[in-house]
Each structure stands twice: as C-alpha cells, then as structure tokens.
Amino acid sequence: MNKSRDTPRSAEPGRRLPILERLGPQDLMMLWPDDLGWPEVIGALAILDGTGLLDPDGRFRVETVREVIGSRLSLVPRFRQLLHMPRRGLGRPLWVDARCFDLTEHVRVLPFSAPPDEARLLRAVEDVRAVPLSRSRPLWEMWFLPGLTGDRVAVYIKVHHTVADGQAGVALLGTFLDPSADAPPTPAGPWTPAPMPSSRDLFEDNLRRRAEAAEGTLSKLRRPATTLHQARERWPAVRENYLKERAPRTSFNIPIGRHRRLAVIRSNLDAAKQIARSLDAKLNDVLMAATAGGLRALLRSRGEQVEDLVLRAFVPVSLHQEEPGKARGNQGGLMFVPLPVGEPDPVRRLRLITEASTRHKKYVVGAPEGILGRNQALQRAMTRSLARQRWANVYIANIFGPRMPLYLAGARITEIFPVVPLIGNFTLAVAAFSYAEQLNITVVADANACPDVAIFAQGLRDSLQALSPSQARPEVG
Hints:
Helix content: 25-40%
Order of helices and strands: EHEHEEEHEEHHHEHHEEHHHEEEEEH
Distance between the termini: 37 Å
Shape: globular
Number of helices: 12
Oligomer: single chain
Mean pLDDT: 88
Strand order of the largest sheet: 5-6-7-2-13-12
Largest sheet: 6 strands, mixed
Radius of gyration: 23 Å
Structural class: alpha+beta
Low-confidence stretches: 1-11, 472-477
C-alpha cells in the first residue's frame, strides 16, 4: 500500500513523529484524473441468492448486511480513513482516520422498478457509478439493488483506485465474504480514530522524505556506472512501449464524457482454458483475441476499413508479491500488445496475439520512478495528455478471483462482474473476472463514443464461440 512502516526520526530529542501513510507514486497517478472529470473508481457487480436477505414482505434486510460489514471493518483500515490533501509545503496526500464514521452512508439500498431485467440493472449500476465519491468520507460504497426475479439481489461495490488496484480490490472484497453460508459471526473490534497529524508533523515528515530522496539521488550520482547500467536495462521497455509504435486513429478514440454504457458476457472458465490449452496460449491471450474480434465487428458495422488494421491494447500487469488474498494498494505494471483486428481468422488472430504477448511480457513497465514518481506537476501534465494519447486504443484487464463460491451475510454470490474506469481517450475497456468456474466479462464504454457497444459485445461473444475447439458454444450468454 506504499506505506512507510519505519519509525520516523525527529530532529528534536525525545520526540517521535507519527507514522504517516502517504500516497505513493502509483497511488497519486490514480488521483489526478478525478480533477479532469475522469473518476478513477474500480468496482464489481455481484448477484446474490437473496432468499435469506428478504423479510416475509420481500423487503431487503439491510441491517443484517450492515452488521456483517461493520464487524469486518477493523480488517480494512482504509474503509474508515479519509484522503487528506495537505496544503503546499506539507507533502503528498495521505490517509487519516475519519473523526466520525457512519456505515449507513456506505452500505445503501436502491430498489429499482420493473421490469427487473438485466438492461435496467446495468442502467441502475451506471447511475450509481456516475455519482462521485465524496472526499469528506472514506472512498467506498456498497449499493444493494433488490428487485430482480427469483429473489435475487444485486450489489454494486465501488472503491476509489487510490485505495486498491484490481488484485487488491479482490482481497478487500474477500474480507467481507465467507466460504459457507453458516460461517460464525465475526465480533466487531473496537475502533478509536487516531488524531489528525499536526502541520508540524506533516512538515517534518515531508522534510525527512525529501532528504531521503535527495540522498538517493546523490547515491546514484556517486555510482554513475551502476546508474547507467540500470537505465540501459529499463530503456528497451520504454522504447518498446512508448516510442516504437503509435496506436492507429479510430472513430472511438476520442476524449471521454461523463456517462457509460455497460454490457456483460458470461462464459465458462474451463471452456476458455480449453481454448488456451488447445492453441498453446494463455487465458489473457484468449481474452485479447476475443476483444480483437469485438473491435473488428464494431468497426465493420460502422463501415470502416479493417483490412491489415492492427490496434494496440493497454494491458495491466499485476506486480503484487503478497500471499493470495493479502494484496493491498496499487502495485501494477503495464504492457502494450498489438491486436490484429484485420485478421479474419479467429484462430490465426489468437496465434498472432499469443506470439506478440509472449514477446511483450519482456518489456513490462513498472511504477513511475525518479522525478516522475515524485513530481506532482509532471504527473498532472502526463495525466492531462491522456485525452490525446496514441499509445493504445483499448484497455483489457484479466482479474483472477476465487475458484470456490463465496457468501455475503449468508447469501451465496452466484456471479461477479468487474467494472473498470475509463480515462483520457480510452472509450472502451474490457475486464474479465474468474469466479467459481465462471469467466465473466464486462464491457465499459463511453456512451457518446460507443452507443453501439452491443455490437462490440456480440462480436466478442462470437469470437469466443469461434475459438472453441469443438466449435460449440462455450456457455457464452
């Protein structure tokens, strides 16, 4: 979580500075898009068997759920902390305990009216997603949407990206879930908020960190041969990802607006793995190949030329080293992978993507370092330039979840779909989540640039079907 766990020293004898949890360079990169109207909020839509969560009159038992969520909050300190923005000269933003915390502001209910179908559910999720998270409260919300047929209840969880990335988000969500419906209750631990650090604390902590950064820079200057060697090692990744090629211009790579359209695709995890095994590919390659098929269908429906067209995908790479289920904060890299949209044969398309992704895995770019990692002005400028970026055309993420079914307040989770943010001129994003033998895919599209997102989603479905070794439909819905 980019925390500083050392005990800060103070120039004043006998005085110790409090441990301050500043945002790290990668966390900061998730903060600046908010100022440009691109909220960096990650989320998940889950469907519950809500039989046990409804009273005899069909009303949702929200207090039962709040009791379970509240009993686990001590395991997720971020969910009772605020993002504090110090004034100039006092250092980077940091996490501080909220002086007061009201769980009812975070666990909420939004029944939706008939017809209780998937289309209306996705519109309701978009309505909730579009409401910004207030920085006056901890940066997360959990919205329950009862009213689906068969006593099902939907829940949409939204968390600001400064708190967690995809893999850390899975770990956070897992804190509130159980492996069985009859798991014993968790006793709620006591909570006393830590006092707000003083301006003096912030100033001295910032001064210490700047001194350490300066010492690090001087250390590199004292070892020019080592520093040059490290720069040479990083250069191929920078060249391959940012300088070697530019993404083609497309009709859908325009600055994003405020509103989104969502589409979901259900597929079977084992069927997708069978595709990967039969063609000596990875699961991520199958997702990228299916996405390329969706892009091909979308552009052809618009009457655009796709022959010989190769688009570029922005693919996040998890760099978490924690034990499974323990990931925290933002620890990710990235790579750009070519998508041969012009290739009409789905199998040939997958083979080309597998070859390319194998090659590009050698050039994963990690977290920002050096002056970019420390300079907020440079970070802001780089973020602003994303509205005109030519590094990639589409965002594709594959998030690994638990293989066994899980339960929330005794209710079985039957499905989980990831919901990722859009930024800059990325008006299309595809995210897959594996859960309990399912591989569920969500397409997030800018409503203005991609009103025809259903065509893209159908093209992705068709590509998955075409890649199946038996040519049978791999349980894609």
